[in-house]
Amino acid sequence: xxxxxxxxxxxxxxxxxxxxxxxxxxxxxxxxxxxxxxxxxxxxxxxxxxxxxxxxxxxxxxxxxxxxxxxxxxxxxxxxxxxxxxxxxxxxxxxxxxxxxxxxxxxxxxxxxxxxxxxxxxxxxxxxxxxxxxxxxxxxxxxxxxxxxxxxxxxxxxxxxxxxxxxxxxxxxxxxxxxxxxxxxxxxxxxxxxxxxxxxxxxxxxxxxxxxxxx
Length: 215
What we know:
Blueprint: H1 2-18, E1 20-24, H2 26-31, E2 35-38, E3 42-44, E4 52-54, E5 61-65, E6 73-80, E7 90-94, E8 102-107, H3 117-120, E9 124-129, H4 134-140, E10 146-147, E11 159-165, E12 169-174, E13 182-185, E14 195-199, E15 205-214
């Protein structure tokens, strides 16, 4: 029994070492001046503990974390958008080389309740800016980098996303579903370990409970 406990402890330490887990209190991160905003204002989100909000402006926006690195591994986060057609694009940017060059996974919550199949197919999206925008990917590689979410979340409630980033592909899960809602081959190799929050054109967004499990 004693040997079993020792083995379990060793295994747990190996897992922690292999996957260096970092939980970010986003409110504290913002208060401590460790978020760099690009084309957005970032603020505490009301009385919601640990949550921050990005305001809505024309163009895409970033909230890049300072002193935080992420290359490959798993990103867990809770997001809150809104059921506002064409004005709720919310997600996570990674491999951020500069203000305009990065990969991102984002969601369109207003499509979570869509009835038309063409809108259902656009619930979750991968992009690599500035070369591969959603518009270019949809036109040239239709259906490859966006997908429907069966059992989609409520667009006006918080929902959890888990984004697994490997060297060659990205796999996205939502809520506690075991099957991925999107799997894509990355359009860029990892060249930067910067990571941040992301919102799209004219969109605000709220974020909390960010956990990075690094490989």
